[in-house]
Design brief:
The protein is mostly helical. It has 3 helices and no strands. Helix 1 (6-26) packs antiparallel against helix 2 and helix 2 runs antiparallel to helix 3. The radius of gyration is 11 Å and the shape is globular. The N and C termini lie far apart (26 Å). The relative contact order is 0.15.
């Protein structure tokens, strides 16, 4: 992830915060609803899946 631009880091952070609010409000779906938006930033799913798995490990639904 070192080749990301600063605006991409900011957009990814905002999407993870938004995904947390979705999961806390709905109780499910934060990671599933966030992944398409993350793929709009960088179309590399293997770049985001490890971060999403760690996010779900420490903040379970």
């Amino acid at each position: 992830m070192t080749d990301l631009l600063p605006w991409e880091y900011g957009a990814i952070a905002l999407l993870f915060i938004w995904g947390g609010f979705v999961r806390s409000g709905l109780g499910f779906g934060g990671a599933v609803l966030t992944l398409p938006f993350l793929l709009m930033i960088r179309d590399q799913p293997l770049l985001f899946l490890p971060i999403i798995s760690v996010h779900l490990l420490f903040f379970p639904p």
